[in-house]
Amino acid sequence: MSAQVSLWSIGPSVYLPSLLFGIGQGAIAPVVVLSARELGASVATASLVVAMLGVGQIIGDLPAGMLAVRIGEQRAMLVAAAATVGALVLCIMANSVWVLAIGIGMVGTAASVWGLARHAYLTEVIPYAQRARALSTLGGTHRVGMFAGPFIGALVMSGMGTDGGYWVHVATAVLAAGLLVLLPAVPSPSPRSGHDVSRESTLDVVRRHLPVLRTLGMGALLVGAARASRQVVIPLWGDHIGLDAATTSLIFGLSGAVDMLLFYPAGLVMDRLGRRWVAVPSMLVLGLSYVLLPLTHSVATLAAVSMVMGLGNGMGSGIIMTIGSDISPAGSRATFLGAWRLCADVGNGAGPVLISAVTAAAALGPAILSMGAVAALAALGMGYWIPRYGGSPRE
């Protein structure tokens, strides 16, 4: 077994950099669509630009696991922070939709490396009895960032335009990297698992765990699609009913406010009652919000439904990371988690693509409703495939 530590003893060094990184991601989340629109993109094309974030994550998932093993968790995160800054500068300088799309894809790849490194580390060092709380707190720091980021972004954008959101992320990525270097080093997991990973290829790990990846992994894919789509539909629907960028950003932030309140209760329920008690209700509430969204026609009604959307998403804080950790093999965690996160990230990319396709074929309203159906399928899949553990998971 690895040398395990308590959740709170490593809190500042683990969670503060991730909080800053999350603030940056929150700052750019509502403005990517708007930046694409400013460059002349149609609604369908703007959705594809947002989808590039998911495409970048897909590209990065499998290499991220091996990178974390080869150079270590902290160095992998520093590489991710540096790559994020470069990608954001490209977004700011973009003079065409496709240059913006490339920059957003690079942001997604860097975020994949960052997230995988933290996920693998906490899986290894936190005891199983506290695992869901540790990982939901990691998800919660992202949600706190997604709440604060749009407000900070809206403030900066009032003087700099949509580029202000990207500059906020540049600043937070640099600060996060600084904290990684300056804060006390986190305890290292046992070297045993890292040595095992280095001897087994990614392809071998995927082949060995293909049965779970093609069943429970499909549930993770559907969850990823349902979750990622909310970052598209709120700004697009706000634009559809005539709201400006700053107002849309504030509504996005209100959704994040509800989202962030539930991360620790979600982890506690998962640790005490089981993963299914969080996964299924989360997707049902999220699906309901997609059904209600096309009925909104004002700031107040859009804000109300966006908060229901935040409630559903927040209820599931950390669920994908926790399930992935539960089923990950002790000898090749980082490599397996790269494949597991690939399942969810394929969904992250597919959700906005589906919205784009249905919007192009029909209209934005039916596209949003289609995501309600995806969320319902996610609830059914996770309810059926999540393992029922009698005690600790297999190690």
UniProtKB/TrEMBL annotation:
This is MFS transporter. Belongs to the major facilitator superfamily. TCR/Tet family. It holds the Pfam family MFS_1. It is found in: Cell membrane. SUPFAM superfamilies: MFS general substrate transporter. Keywords: Cell membrane, Membrane, Transmembrane, Transmembrane helix, Transport. It is a multi-pass membrane protein. Residues 10-390 form the Major facilitator superfamily (MFS) profile domain. The chain crosses the membrane at residues 12-33, 39-64, 76-95, 101-121, 142-160, 166-186, 241-264, 368-386. GO terms for cellular component: plasma membrane. One of its GO terms (molecular function) is transmembrane transporter activity. It comes from the Bacteria. The keyword Nuclease does not apply. InterPro entries: MFS (IPR011701), MFS_dom (IPR020846), MFS_trans_sf (IPR036259), MFS_Transporters (IPR050171), Sugar_transporter_CS (IPR005829), Tet-R_TetA/multi-R_MdtG-like (IPR001958).
